[in-house]
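User: I'm new to structure prediction. If I give you an amino acid sequence, what do you actually give back? Let's try with this one:
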Amino acid sequence: MKVHIDQLVAFLKAYGPPKCYRNWTAIRIQEYLTHHDQQRTLLVVAEGDQVQAVAVGWQANESVLRRPQFINIPFTWEPTNPEGDSFYVAEVVCRGNQLGRVWQEYCDMFPNWTQLKLFMIRHAKLVELSDQTMFRWDSRYAH
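Assistant: Good question. You get back a string of structure tokens that encode the predicted 3D arrangement of the chain. For your 143 residues, that looks like this:
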């Protein structure tokens, strides 16, 4: 991590979804971030020492993402699979218009990013992010 973990904790508590990080203890958030940093599934966008975005995601096979135990709580985490045909976006917390930068960073981290199907859980359901959705997000959050 280029910024201190305490900065990431403060960022997630300030900008994260109210039902998630704001109710977590600082130690729990640190453990979560450390785990994903070690697995190389944590993405931090910063300008100098100012955190702009934090994202967690990994490459996987669509068949793994569609298993009921992946979607249901308790969540079953799987390590990233460089051979996977999809990418799971677990978390994206941005300040301002940084979403376009997050997608660009993922393009840099995963050379085959543009060929992967993108998934996330919305309203307790696994959904595939369409090109139209990505275009709207990129247009809305372009910097």
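You can read the tokens as a compact description of the fold. Here is one thing that stands out. The beta strands are 42-47, 50-60, 86-94, 117-122, 125-129.
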